[in-house]
Amino acid sequence: MAFKPLGDRVLVKRLENETTTSGGIIIPETAKEKPQRGKIVSLGEGKRTDDGKLIAPRVKEGQQVLFGKYSGTEVKIDSEEYIIMREDDILGIIE
């Protein structure tokens, strides 16, 4: 893919949730919520301060992250669905 986000934005691919519960109950497609975790695919150069200084991103490509339910903008690139969001919308890194 040849897509590079600008500034402090990151491109995230949603990771799918489990389709069965721990008790073995299968969750139908219509009852599933969109997952709030994803993998960083690409990121911009970082955020600029008012005086022009560049602050590098704290996240890296390949890291799994948690983000808010309504964070970012959903886009389709090469028939794949992604979310573009600001680094500030990321709640945390999954280690």
Main features:
single chain; 95 residues; 10 Kd Chaperonin, Protein Cpn10, Chain O; 6-stranded antiparallel β-sheet
Write a structural description.
The protein has 95 residues and is mainly beta. It has a single domain (9-94), classed as GroES chaperonin (10 Kd Chaperonin, Protein Cpn10, Chain O, Roll), CATH 2.30.33.40. Helix content is 0%, strand content 40%. It has no helices and eight strands. It has a six-stranded antiparallel sheet with strand order 6-7-1-2-5-8, with no helix packed on it. Strands 3-4 form a two-stranded antiparallel sheet. It is elongated. The protein starts with 8 loop residues before the first strand and ends with a strand.
